[in-house]
Amino acid sequence: MKTQRVLTGITTSGTPHLGNYVGAVRPTVRASRLAEVESFYFLADYHALIKVGEPARVQRSTLEIAATWLACGLDPDKVTFYRQSDIPEIPELTWFLTCVTGKGVLNRAHAYKASVDKNNAANEDPDAGVTAGLFMYPVLMAADILMFNAHQVPVGRDQIQHIEMARDIAASFNHLYGEHFTLPEAAIEEHVATLPGLDGRKMSKSYDNTIPLFAPRDQLKKLIMGIVTDSRAPGEPKSTEGSALFQLYQAFASADETAALASAYADGIAWGEAKQALFERLDREIAPLRMVYDELIQEPERIERTLKAGAEKARAIATPFTARLRHAVGLRPLQVATTPAATKGSKTAAPAFKQYREHDGLFYFKLMGAHGELLLQSTGFAVPRDAAQVVTRLQREGPAALEALATQLTILGEAGDVRAALRWFSERDA
Ligand code: TRP
User: Which of 36, 307, 350, 356 has the greatest CB tally within 10 Å of its CB?
Assistant: First the structure.
C-alpha cells in the first residue's frame, strides 16, 4: 500500500544541467520507483514568472524540463506528473493561505531578505525592484505542497525554510478552520552530491558555470575540456581533493571506477587524459537518455498530452479538496446554508441521498445534510445499481461504513456532520 506522499516541483526558468540531474532528477526518478511512495512531480511555471519575464523562455524551459524527466525514466503512469498552471485550484488555495500567513513571516524569507539587504547595502529603497510575487513565493509553494497533503518534500538545502513556512501556514489554517492539511517535512538527500561547475564553484545557473545535461556530444566534450584544473604537468602526481574533475567523475562512476581514477591521479595522469575519461564515463550514462530526450523534444504535442493527463489526475484530488476548503472557510452557496429548514415545507428537515447522472455518463450520488449542505460526494459508477448499493450500505451501517467505502467517497462536509447524518439513517432503519 502507498502510505507516503512525496511531492516536489522544479521551476521552469532554465535548461537542466548536470547538477540538476545528479542532485534532483536522478535520485527522484529512483525514489519514484519505490512501491510504498505515491509521488507528485510538477513543473512550477507559476514560480518561473517570478524570475523570468520572457514568455518564450518559460515555454521552452517547460518543454525541456518535462522532456528531461521523461527521458530520465519518470513513468507518468506510476506517478502524478503535471504542470502547476494546469491546476487552477493552486492559485485559489494560495489566496486562502495568504489570508492566514503573517506578513512578518514573509519578511523573514531568505530570498526576499537577500534582496532587501542588497538594496540597503546599495543605499537604495529597501524594496527597490522587489515584486510582490517574490514576496509571496513561499505562500505559492505552500499551496503546491498542501494541496496534495504531501508528507515528504525532497528539496535542496536552500528550500528548507520554505518547507518550514508551509508547515506554519498549514498549522495556522488548521487551527482556524479544522484539520485539513498534513504538515509536510523537507526530505534532504544527505548522500547526494552537490556538483562543482566548470570553475570549481557549485554548478549553478547564477554562476554561469553549468554543463547542460543534454548538450550534444561534441559540445559536452568541449565543455569538459574546459574544466578548471591546476597546472601540474603530465607525470606529476595530482590531488583528488578539491578537484572538480574528480568530483564530477565520482558522481557518475562506481566505487571501483572512482578508486581507479584516484590511483591514476596519484600516478600522474595528464589532465587531458583525465578529462577524456570523465567525458567517456559521463557520455556512457547520458547518451541513451539523450537519444530519448532528442526524440521527445521534437514532439511537444506528445508531452503536452502527457501533462494534460497528469493534470487530470492531480485535479481529481485538487477539485474536491478545494470544494471542501471553500466550504470550510465559509465560501458556501447561500440558499442551502441560510434557508431555515422550516420554510422549505411542512416536512421536518432530514438528511437525504440524491442520485443523478452526469455528463460523463456515469452515475453518482451525494449526501445532503438536514439543511441542504453537501456532505458526501461519490465517485462515478458505470451502472446505477452499484451506486444504489453503496447508498444502501451507508444507510444501513451508518458512519461505520465510511472507512470501507473511502475510495468511493469524497467527504465534503465537516466530519461530525457527515457522521451525524449517516447515524440518522442507520437509527431510522434499525
Ligand atoms: N522553490 C522550488 C525551487 O526553486 C521549486 C518549487 C516550487 C517546489 N514549488 C515547490 C519544490 C513545491 C518543492 C515543493 O527549487
Answer: 307
Q: What is the CATH number of the domain that holds 313?
A: 3.40.50.620
Ligand 1 in reach of 43 Cβ (< 6 A): no
Point out which residues pair with 367 in neighbouring strands: 353, 376
The rounded Å distance from CA 9 to ligand 1 centre is 5
Domain count for the chain: 3
Residue 175 shares a structural domain with residue 100: yes
Nearest-atom number in ligand 1 for the CA of 10 is: 5
Q: What pLDDT, in 10s, does the model give residues 251-290? A: 999 999 999 999 999 999 999 999 999 999 999 999 999 9
Examine residue 278 and state whether it is found in any structural domain, yes or no. yes
Q: Using the mean position of ligand 1's atoms as its centre, give its distance from the Cα of residue 76 in Å.
A: 19
**Alpha carbon nearest to ligand 1 atom 11, residue:** 9
CB atoms within 10 A of CB 119: 16
Distance 10 CA to ligand 1 centre (A): 6
Structural domain that includes position 414 = 352-428
Residue 109 Cβ contacting ligand 1 at under 6 Å: no
Q: Is the shortest distance between the CB of 47 and ligand 1 below 6 Å?
A: yes
% of the chain beyond a pLDDT of 70:
96
Question: What is the Cα–Cα distance from 109 to 96, expressed in whole angstroms?
Answer: 19
Ligand 1 pocket check for 184: Cβ under 6 Å: no
Cβ contact 421:354 at 8 Å:
no
Instruction: Name the pTM for this structure.
Output: 0.77
**Ligand 1 atom closest to the CA of 137, numbered from 1:** 1
Q: What is the pLDDT of residues 56-80, one digit of tens each?
A: 999 999 999 999 999 999 999 999 9
Task: Give me ligand 1 centre to Cα 391, in Å.
Answer: 41
- Between CA 238 and CA 275 the distance in angstroms is 13
Instruction: Please tell me if the CB atom of residue 153 comes closer than 6 angstroms to any atom of ligand 1.
Output: yes
Q: Determine which helix (DSSP H) or strand (DSSP E) holds 300, and give its type and residue range.
A: helix 300-329
Instruction: Report CA torsion sign: 119, 132, 40, 52.
Output: negative
Q: Name the phi and psi angles at 184, rounded to 5.
A: -80, 160
28 lines ligand 1 (CB under 6 A): no
Those residues whose C-beta lies under 8 Å from the C-beta of residue 203, and which sit 6 or more positions away, are 17, 18, 19, 194, 195, 196, 197, 209, 210, 211
Q: CB under 8 Å to 52, separation ≥6 — which residues?
A: 13, 58, 61
Mark whether 228 and 286 lie in a shared domain.
yes
Same domain, 394 and 366: yes
**Helical spans, DSSP H, in 34-177:** 45-51, 55-71, 89-98, 103-107, 110-121, 132-147, 160-177
